[in-house]
Amino acid sequence: GMLKDRTAHPTPRPLDTMEYIIGMHDWKSVLDPFTGSGTTGVACIKTGRKFIGIELDEGYCEIAARRMREAESHLFAEVVK
Fold first, then answer.
1. What is the pTM of this model?
2. 3-state class of 30 per DSSP?
3. Taking a C-beta distance cutoff of 8 angstroms, is the pair 32, 59 a contact?
4. How many CB atoms lie within 10 A of CB 43?
5. How large a percentage of the chain has pLDDT more than 90?
6. Backbone angles phi, psi at 24, to 5 degrees
7. Is 32 helix (H, G, I), strand (E, B) or coil?
8. How far apart are CA 81 and CA 33, in angstroms?
9. Which letter does DSSP use for residue 41 in this model?
């Protein structure tokens, strides 16, 4: 419900769930062949992993790129503080 409204994606994943799953492993990078609105990419940024995303829908690519830019800017803002 709420996540779909925020991301406009029909099958959104909660960010905290993706951070938890990624954090359970030693992965240095993550490949998401169905990037959608970019939740996995944001989780990778927040957990210090490299991210490779693939998405066919240009609209979702734009949403994912915006969300990942925002996550990076928040990350750098935290470091500067």
1. 0.81
2. strand
3. no
4. 25
5. 72
6. -75, -10
7. strand
8. 35
9. H
